[in-house]
Amino acid sequence: MISAQSRKVGRPGREALTRFVRGPGRGAPAFLLAAALAGFAAMGLGVDAQRALDGVVIAWVMGSLALLGWFDGTAYRIDPWWLSALAGAAAVWQAQAAGPEPVEGLLRGLAGAGVGFALGALPIGVAEALGRRWPFSPGDALLFAGLGVLVGPLGVLWTVFLGGLVSLARHRCVQRRRGRPWTRGHVALGPGMAVAAASVFVASNYSVVAGAGG
Fold this sequence. Notes:
The protein is mainly alpha-helical. The chain has one domain (22-213). Helix content is 79%, strand content 0%. Helix 4 runs antiparallel to helix 5, helix 4 crosses helix 6 (138-178) and helix 6 crosses helix 7 (189-204). 40% of the residues are buried.
């Protein structure tokens, strides 16, 4: 979830840009570059180019998911750097690995983004119309969209369902450790969604993932 501070209305564009540039996730570009350089080094050592590229994109995806989950679990905030990194890596994956054609893969990713965003935005719209508390934050809707780019329209349905279960289980454990009722407090969806998305991603692309890591 995004923090209450990130929902301020005053000067939203400027504040959003400042948070993006100075935010804790600004190390994302360095991570992406390091993984790419490692891929080039692997090719220099004789690793097949396609296998090395698959490994780089898988590293981008898994690293982005891990950091997204960690930031949301500790700060209740969907970090825009790592969300952007995930969406970019997911688009590359859909174009070059998921295939069979780049355009087909990108269209599948775009459809997944639409489904994912709808899963978060529609409940917010209904709650707003009824004058109820929002079940998700806008950051969660964007997270679902990013996950949809990665796993496609059907995969994002499984991801949100499984991620919701994992998130509730994690929240209950955290609240129990703090001595608080599990029905109170904000539920950070990032950690659970990261685990679910990684599981769906690996299950859907097992042969490619195993080949890149083998």
